[in-house]
Structures are given as structure tokens and as C-alpha cells.
Amino acid sequence: MSTPTPLRIDADVKLDSKILTDVAEALEPHADQMFKQRKGRWIAIVELAHVERTEPGPDEEKNPTVKLRVTDLEIAATAFTEDELRQMLRAMYQRRTSEGTLDEHAA
To answer: In the predicted model, is pLDDT for residue 105 greater than 70?
Structure first.
């Protein structure tokens, strides 16, 4: 018996530019460093919330769109924390990209 294929929707994702107070407070201690480092990178834990969904009309040649807002954010403040988050990021990436790579018939 085969597993049903999940419905795939090619939706565009947009980030809402509104910055909530809590998120601004989390960014504030890093703002000077972010300004000074033009090519800087920061690792963070982020929570996203759905704020808007747009479905094009039947005659429009557009993808559906979902808009997300950053609702919570914490940036790694120490090298130790940054290393821990990078390890988690790598593990999550490996989990996401390895799905379906094992031989299903071997089990």
C-alpha cells in the first residue's frame, strides 16, 4: 500500500518588516556590532508567526504568498553559545536534507 503524496504548494515566503518590541530589545545589544561589520553574520534562534496569506485569482499568474513576522529572537552572545547553535543548525540541516536518502526497501 503506498503512502499518499502530500499536497505541494509553490508559495512565495515574505518576511514582514515590522519589528516587535521584544525582538527590537533582543537586537539592541548587537546593533553597534551589526552596523560596524558590513559582512558580519550572527546566529540566532528565531520564532516566526503567520501574519498574512495571499491567494492569486484564477486568471493571475502569481504564486500564493505567505507573510511571516519574527515574533521572538535570541542572538548567540558568546562563542560557546554560537558554537552550540551552529551544531544544532548543522544537525537540523542534516536531518532535513537526508530525508528519503536511505533505501526504503532495506527496512
So the answer is: no
